[in-house]
Amino acid sequence: MATSSNFIRTAGRILNAGQSRALILTGNIHDIFHAKKGGQDDYLSLVEYLTGNWNLSSLILIVYELNGPIRFLREKDAEKVRKAWIEWRLGMNPDDLAINRMTASEEIESQLESVTSAYDDSMQKAVSNPTLALELMRQMCLCSRSDLGGSTCLKENLLVLVEGADMLLPDAPITSLNDMDRQRVSICHDWFCDLGFVNGGDSVVMIAESRSQLNQRIARLPQLIEVEVPSPDLETRKHFISWFSRNDNKDRKLQLWGTQAELAELTAGLSLHALMQLLKGVRHGRARLSQEEVVSKVEGFIKSQLGEEVVEFKKPGHSLQDVIGFKGLKTFLKKEVIPRFGMESGEALPGAAIGGPIGAGKTFIFEAVAAELDMVVLVIKNIRSKYYGETDVIFERLRRVLMALSRVLIFIDEADTQLGGVSKDTHETERRLTGKIQSMMSDPLLRGKVVWLLVTARIHLLSPDIRRPGRVGDLIIPVLDPEGKDREAFLDWVVSPVVSGKLTGEDREGFAAATEGWSAAGFAALRSELKAKAKLFGKKGRLTMDDVMGLIEDLLPPAIGETRRYQTLQALVNCTRRSLLPDPTVTDEERETWSHEIRRLEAKGIR
In terms of domains, do 469 and 507 share one? Predict the structure, then answer.
């Protein structure tokens, strides 16, 4: 039915081929999954889904949950394992045990009683002792393949499912683990590295949201193969909505604003659990489900998965029409960039990097681009976590979200601080994070689905690997201070709320001279200041040009001129389109002079 269930076939192939005897299922592990139960469609938890699919006569299924019992899927299997374990501990096969019990009754009966009592006692204590539970299951695997008198203790192979593996084997430096945690890591390490287990028929399948959550001594074992449980795709969501509707309460029918297919499209990013919550709430309220409710639910779910401090949904309230000046850049964006972002995977741009000095208007312009694209806009605020190992987990959650969403724009402002480097001087976690994001940018599965916009005043501090072609290096756009006609547009815009009529003659010349070299942010700040002054001191909210010039004369520019010049030069030398430079006819010699000036500024300590 749905491609989202392919993971179980992948896991089955690995186990059947003997490629590995230790698997870890990661990803969307807390969701529900489609299965046939009694000939009817049903949705089950992951463990129920796995045991239902792997309930074979050649396997004995054992399920262990943290602080729960060691549970056998079939009661008769529990007795088989108990009997085999006792015989293994006594070192006798069933025939020898029966003969010895008849001939040397007291000693054998005493040993039998002691071993039986030890097994039953261990099974009982394992309920509240996960360390004992792991050791006991390891011994069951030893017992399973042991040879007593020419035959193995068990005819069937064991398949052990371990839930909450991240809680059993927490990821932390071994020196900071308590004795019990260390012992569990040691048990699993010995278990999975044992050649008898590796070459045998028994298997262990652990379940955790992320491999990164497991203690690294286990997570890094080559014997442990990871199989990802993906988020529900479009076909999976369609099937679930159809199933829910068919099994709907007759008195409370599900009412949608459109078709079930439209609902499935709009719920990209939701787990089936979250989708069920949404549909149950609508059914109970007897109200028609609106598109706004669905969008809100999706946003809330994704934020709950990634964390409020990690990601924010952006709904820009302005478009390119609201951007003052930048006529050439806006034409380029409308004719070339926006159409390329909307193309299919082969022709689509993976994204763009935007450089330029602080205050040039980079964020405002490209928020407008995001609005024009009519895509979900995710703003990455801080993907790093202060908790040990959590950064990798957050990244993996982000990747699952991106794979599930149909189309999304990732907006990273101050990208040079959000994305570190990959040099040896960079922290290991930061190098790993940057490397993973770089890989995601060039992932062909995400091309055409995910657009990356990296905005920074320090374009040179982005990793060279990020700036290469095939990633955002396909398009690096400089956003510079307004000049010529663009600057004139800013002059008119600044005074339009407070001065009647357009600027002409001496007024325009004086105003232009007084604001020479100003940035877009500087003009915006002046406009705000003029509007405030007009309200406080102007007549009917208006000012004269003398008032305006007086205010400008009172303003002292911040001492950031050389820094802004350095950032402008870096944006120019990193630009990947000649047509976006202030002078498209610029020569290689002129570009070389920019590099020389950069080195002179760096010699003065400007970075």
Answer: no
